């Protein structure tokens, strides 16, 4: 059995050498300190925060399933799944006004 963790957002393995980070499902600034955390590829984590504000995350995206349902994140997931497990690129563009949900 493999001990390589799998990114719950994109479903790809996270190699030990790949950039990675923890994501608080409930933002720390919105009461999530000490709450549930998931390990993600850094690029996946960056895309979450480029797509949603802390308030938006706290209001309706506090589970991995909810994050996957966000239109911009769903498009990103379809794109990133075609990349190598350790793929990393520069930070995504800034949030857009249409991100509020």
From TrEMBL:
Top-level lineage group: Bacteria
Protein name: HNH endonuclease
């Amino acid at each position: 059995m493999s001990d390589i963790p799998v990114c719950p957002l994109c479903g790809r393995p996270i190699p030990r050498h790949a950039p990675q980070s923890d994501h608080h499902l409930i933002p720390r600034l919105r009461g999530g300190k000490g709450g549930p955390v998931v390990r993600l590829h850094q690029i996946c984590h960056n895309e979450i925060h480029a797509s949603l504000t802390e308030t938006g995350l706290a209001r309706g995206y506090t589970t991995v399933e909810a994050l996957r349902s966000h239109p911009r994140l769903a498009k990103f997931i379809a794109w990133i799944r075609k990349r190598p497990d350790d793929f990393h690129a520069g930070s995504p563009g800034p949030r857009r006004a249409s991100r509020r949900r």
